[in-house]
Amino acid sequence: QVQLVESGGGLAQAGGSLRLSCAASGRTFRSYAMGWFRQAPEKEREFVAAINWSGGITYYADSVKGRFTISRDRAKNTMYLQMNSLKPEDTAIYYCAARLTSGLSSDQYEYEDWGQGTQVTVSS
Question: Which of 36, 68, 87, 98 can pair with 64 through a Cys bridge, CB separation 3.0 to 4.6 Å?
């Protein structure tokens, strides 16, 4: 099992930026694919971005493509989500997740371990 702790959420204005971090501990982090998901009030949890074990391959939801950047530092066991040009519709609780394989996935049910989430609120 991998323990995941998100940080970096908060309040931002539309057009602003935030950087989320996800610190991992426990089983070997390097071999895991990772992802970010989010859940807005009264909505289903949705995929945001994913990154493979090496960090060389990334995948984004259309709604964030060109604005968000996912990355990972394997030496620090940490994954990041740089969020630029934020919009009010980006307001949600953001979760990081890990899956026991190196491949990418946008399916939340393919992820075994989850963080507790961090709130992101974007004001207009």
Answer: 68
